[in-house]
Specification:
Bound molecules: inosinic acid, magnesium ion
Number of domains: 1
Order of helices and strands: EHEEEEEHEEHHEHEHEEHEHEHEEHE
Number of strands: 17
Radius of gyration: 19 Å
CATH class: Alpha Beta
CATH superfamily: Adenylosuccinate Synthetase, subunit A, domain 1
Oligomer: single chain
Largest sheet: 9 strands, parallel
CATH topology: Adenylosuccinate Synthetase, Chain A, domain 1
CATH architecture: 3-Layer(aba) Sandwich
Strand content: 15-25%
Shape: globular
Number of helices: 10
Amino acid sequence: MITADIIVDLQYGDCAKGKVAYHLCKNKKYSHALRYNGGCNAGHTIYHNGVKIVTHHIPIGLVFGIKSIIGPGCVLDPDQFFKELKELESAGIKTKNKIFIAQNTHVITPECKEEDGKDTKIGTTKRGNGPAYKNKYGRTGIRAESVPALKPYLIDLYKEFHGKKDVSILCEGAQGFGLDIDWGDYPFVTSSHCTVGGAILNAIPPKAIRDVWGVAKIYETYVGSKQFETNDPIFAKIREYGEEYGATTGRPRQCNWMNMDLLQQAIRMNGVTKVVLSKMDVLRKVSRWAVFDKKKKIEFKKEEDMKKFIRTRLATFGITNKNLYFSERKDRI
Ligand code: IMP
Ligand code: MG
């Protein structure tokens, strides 16, 4: 039997998908971890035995020795891949015979990075992501199977997932719903599918899906060219206390209140069964609580009022109390 849990981000990335992946891999028995979209534009930060680890391509499952795969929904930069392997090895994580790349995954070439480096319109991470997908869909791309250095890591995803008796996969997504190529605020989006649809493209049959973990932050952040933050000085405080600087580029993230309408759309369209709302401690620190709901700002006097409002609203989207988790940074391991 093949089963899969999927992690999706309900906002603009950086909501703590890495942390959710870490907890799930620590507590559940997955045979495989799969990265299903994006390239090294992503940055997943976790704390393992007190050590900070940032991965860009490699699934968090590898930290627990789970057989980890970069799927064909992703684009891969070989230089970054080998750099990450080295970093993980020096953090004491065994990578040998544990990390694989689907043979039909497309590669980010130096030309892709050069082209992306010239972007001034979108505010990309300049990691070559967009041009690699452009080549893929223009049918001029290069697949991992054509790169000699990647040969030892190649895997046939069909045989791997469908040729065995029991396979249980954690699908780790990158970026988020607001950056999705189809459902985000085009053109200020990334070039991949950041929804459960994106996971399914990686040899995951829909029937295999058990839980869809939707991850959001108690306020929103976004990095890129569009104007996202308003001039309320509270957001500078939130950025500072929330350490809102890109894990990949170090750019300051623009901040704003959580948007319940975006959350509702992302929960429904992804078929989310569990919701994690992260960084509760940040709003507590700045003592301001607010959301946008039906395009109106609603302010709350205290944290409990905001939580109560969210619980009630999420129940109307089908997420009951027992499937809603509020998390904070002290939950670091
Ligand atoms: P690209 O994915 O590098 O082409 O960038 C397109 C947009 O997505 C830009 O606004 C990036 O800042 C944003 N983006 C891409 N990857 C991430 C991520 O992992 N977290 C947050 N924003 C991202
Ligand atoms: Mg990130």
